[in-house]
Write a structure and sequence with these properties.
The chain is an alpha/beta fold. It has nine helices and seven strands; from the N terminus they run αβααββαβαβαβαβαα. Helix 2 packs across helix 3.
Length: 233
């Protein structure tokens, strides 16, 4: 009688209560991490299992991740990590925290600590990842990471989300970052030729006329040259 009276949840409802993606819940069921009750051709998850699992989820890590492109930006890296740790102490008290950082291009997927982070995610050991800005994890392919994190119930927190950009402004930024990366490989990331090439490309894009039809104009907020070389990945 007790078992019949116990509330049973569908996978989708259980995933919602656990803050996980349904794919993650189904994977945990298959691996034997969640006990289920067979109801016809479907499975149901007892309320007691939800309560048991919540404790294990709460025990997962908060990962603070920072990245800069080169050793000349170590001060910036220290600033990132200090900002993340200050936030964690104020907003995530009592949460077990792991600090990871890389020195390398945001276009390079093989960064040592990024790979370590992704491995921890795939082992269901991470509850939340915090970065100062969206491009610290990667310059491109953020949608793939978002899907991966959702499947493992990982929350991505960005402390300083960028201002909303138009599709044209995002495309402009992407083009310049790609140019910075590939020209850096050809000439060296800090070479005079690379800087001249980037300045030339930026000048062409930023002063492009709307009448040309390419869509890469400076109207809307990207016309001001930032200090330093913003486009280095």
């Amino acid at each position: 009688m007790a078992k019949q009276a116990q509330k049973l949840l569908r996978v989708g409802a259980a995933a919602h209560e656990l803050g996980l993606h349904p794919i993650t819940v189904r994977r945990w069921i298959k691996a034997g991490r969640i006990q289920v009750v067979q109801v016809g051709r479907e499975v149901r998850i007892p309320r007691s299992e939800i309560e048991r699992i919540v404790g294990s989820i709460d025990g997962r890590l908060l990962v603070l991740y920072g990245r800069v492109s080169g050793r000349g930006q170590l001060d910036d890296l220290h600033t990132q990590l200090e900002r993340l740790q200050t936030w964690a102490k104020a907003e995530r008290k009592g949460t077990e925290t792991l600090v990871l950082s890389d020195i390398g291009s945001g276009l390079k997927a093989g960064r040592k600590q990024l790979q370590r982070l992704l491995k921890l995610v795939c082992e269901d050991k991470v509850a939340e990842i915090a970065v100062t800005s969206e491009d610290r994890l990667t310059r491109f392919g953020q949608e793939f990471l978002a899907t991966l994190f959702a499947c493992f119930g990982v929350t991505l927190t960005v402390l300083e989300p960028g201002a909303d950009k138009t599709p044209e402004q995002e495309l402009t930024d992407d083009l310049l970052r790609l140019l910075a990366s590939f020209s850096g490989r050809l000439y060296g990331m800090r070479s005079h030729k690379q800087k001249e090439l980037l300045q030339c490309a930026q000048a062409v894009i930023m002063h492009c006329s709307p009448a040309c039809g390419c869509g890469l104009t400076s109207s809307g907020g990207s016309a001001v040259d930032p200090p330093g070389n913003r486009w280095l990945p």
